[in-house]
Amino acid sequence: MELGIYSFGDVQRDPGTGKLGSTAEATRNLLEAIKLADEVGLDFFGIGEHHTREMPASAATVVLGAAASATKTIRLGSAVTVLSTDDPVRVYQQFATLDALSNGRAEITAGRGSSTESFPLFGHSLNDYDDLFAEKLELLLKINESETVTWKGKHRPALNEALVVPRPESGSLPIWLATGGNPQSSVRAGLLGLPISYAIIGGQAARFAPLAELYRRAAAQAKIPEAQVKISVASPGFVGDDATKAKEQFWVHWHAVMESIGKIRGFSPPPRHHYDMEASGAGALFVGAPEEIAQRIVTLHGQLGHMRQFFQMDVGHLPQKDFLRSIELLGTRVKPLVDAELGKKLAA
After folding, report:
1. Of 8-22, 33-47, 206-220, which gets the smallest average pLDDT?
2. Tens digits of per-residue pLDDT, 305-315?
3. What confidence tier does 15 reach under pLDDT thresholds 50, 70, 90?
4. Which residues, in sequence order, are bridge partners of residue 309?
5. d(CA 173, CA 305)
6. Which of 163, 178, 165 is nearest to 211 (CA)?
7. What region does 298 belong to: left with phi over 0, alpha with psi -120 to 50, or beta?
8. Is pLDDT above 90 for 329?
9. What's the chain look like in SS3?
């Protein structure tokens, strides 16, 4: 089981004045977090594309490129790249460059984006939400197959024997398809032979088990090699030395971010009893002490058969020191427990 972190570059808030810190500081904090995640033995760090004052991580490959020379083994990727509003040629070139700088540790996770601020920012219409993604994913995969590309679509100028460089030394980049639970996305990923990443941010985590099975059936129908059939899970989470204190602390920050998003999207933030249910047992929020989190990961693995789980910890202006401590606990305490438990199951 690979474990890791994803972040949108959460901006700090001064606890005394309530004033937001700088987006520059948030960017530097990301680099500090990636370096620590590598040091404590985590497997993956992903940066999700956002374009807001509170979540300004809009240029993942620049931060990941800086991290490439400051880390040794951790895989570096997006979580996600909003492919619908980007140019697949530039996306590929940037991640292939990252792959070179990191000696083969780069990954792309492509998605349509649940946050839509990039559409007006780059001059795209939400009316083309599905068409843009389908077309640009097709082009991205074609580029991944060959350095010379001939292609024609509706939303981007055609390419005729176009050379796309640099190229990964391994021959291609790992490209994941991200989804929040749309069944069609599971089918699409399976038929294309792409690994899939499920964003499980609410409800019962096990409800994604039928989608995982749908994905595997589609891959089997397309005769995709088993080695290409991979599932990862992205979920909010926070690990503390004490379970009760961890749940209390994360509630404050999780509620703050839900309140902020709710104002934009038109919903009320969930009440405390809802959080308590989500942050324990079979819920989607992996919050607690190391032993509890490890057991919940193992339980979910038994239901979904996923091979990677990574957590968004820095939400609602969580202090950087607490973010770093949670990363440390995930690597030094949770990961060994998960590895030992799954190792027993494999041995049996």
Report:
1. 8-22
2. 999 999 999 99
3. confident
4. 3, 233
5. 23
6. 178
7. alpha
8. yes
9. CEEEEEECCCCCECCCCCCECCHHHHHHHHHHHHHHHHHCCCCEEEECCCCCCCCCCCCHHHHHHHHHCCCCCCEEEECCEEHHHCCHHHHHHHHHHHHHHCCCCEEEEEECCCCCCHHHHCCCCHHHHHHHHHHHHHHHHHHHHCCEEEECCCCCCCEEEEECCCCCCCCCCCEEEEECCCHHHHHHHHHHCCCEEEECCCCEHHHHHHHHHHHHHHHHHCCCCHHHCCEEEEEEEEECCCHHHHHHHHHHHHHHHHHHHHHHHCCCCCCHHHHHHHCCCCECCEEECHHHHHHHHHHHHHHHCCCEEEEECCCCCCCHHHHHHHHHHHHHHHHHHHHHHHHHHHHC
Q: Whole-model pTM?
A: 0.96
Residue 33 token pair: 């977090």
Q: What phi, psi does 27 have (nearest 5°)?
A: -65, -40
Question: What are the CA-CA distances from residue 275 to residues 49, 345, 348 (Å)?
Answer: 26, 31, 36
In this prediction, residue 60 carries a pLDDT of 97
User: Per this entry, what is the length of the chain?
Assistant: 348
**pLDDT of 180 strictly over 80:** yes
- CA quadruple 60, 63, 69, 74: dihedral sign: negative
Residue in this structure with the two tokens 């599971």, named with its chain if needed: 186
Displacement of CA 331 from its chain's centroid (Å): 17
Tokens at 332, concatenated = 């030094």
Q: Assess contact for 154 and 89: CB atoms under 8 A.
A: no
Task: Please give the mean pLDDT across all residues of the chain.
Answer: 96
Interatomic CA distance for residues 277 and 226, integer angstroms: 35
Q: Tell me the residue type at 234.
A: A
Task: Measure Cα distances from 83 to 196, 197, 315 in Å.
Answer: 15, 15, 23
